[in-house]
Write a structure and sequence with these properties.
Elements lengths: L5 E6 L5 H15 L6 H18 L6 E8 L2 E8 L25 H8 L2 E7 L2 E9 L9
Antiparallel strand pairs: 1-2, 2-3, 3-5, 4-5
Helix pairs in contact: 1-2, 2-3
């Protein structure tokens, strides 16, 4: 049985990691003609990476893992901070302030992914989301 295509990429612990991660996910989904929604995958990946850059304690590496499965795509962002991301799997009591620039990333991930969560790793944590595959794309004749 062939294995699913997957990528594991080290990213800088800086804002420069966000566009690199977005480009990797977009390229993976479009070049392999995967049916998961590319725009949503790119948006949610950017949110995970930006959160890791902004909130992870320490300056250790950030790693992006993308796996394309027949049932959808699975994206993980690993960072050196073992503390769980607040509000990812359990919504906060208060809605985000509509006038603030920050505070909606985890809400987007919960709302737009088919599943999301986090787990402790040997070097910190991995925060992840899954997107279900969509219907096959039609190709011009």
């Amino acid at each position: 049985m062939p294995s699913s295509p997957s990528w594991r990429v080290a990213l800088p612990h800086s804002a420069a990691a966000v566009p690199v991660a977005r480009a990797l996910v977009r390229t993976a989904l479009t070049e392999l003609e995967h049916t998961a929604d590319c725009d949503t995958a790119e948006l949610l990946t950017a949110e995970l990476v930006a959160n890791a850059v902004e909130h992870a304690v320490g300056r250790g590496p950030i790693e992006l893992v993308v796996e394309l499965l027949p049932t959808g795509c699975h994206v993980e962002v690993h960072d050196p901070d073992p503390d769980p991301p607040g509000g990812l799997t359990r919504p906060g009591l208060a809605a985000p302030d509509p006038w603030q620039e920050h505070g909606r990333g985890l809400l987007l991930i919960r709302a737009l992914s088919s599943a999301c969560g986090h787990r402790v790793t040997a070097s910190g944590k991995a925060v992840w989301f899954r997107l279900s595959a969509g219907p096959p794309r039609l190709r011009p004749a």
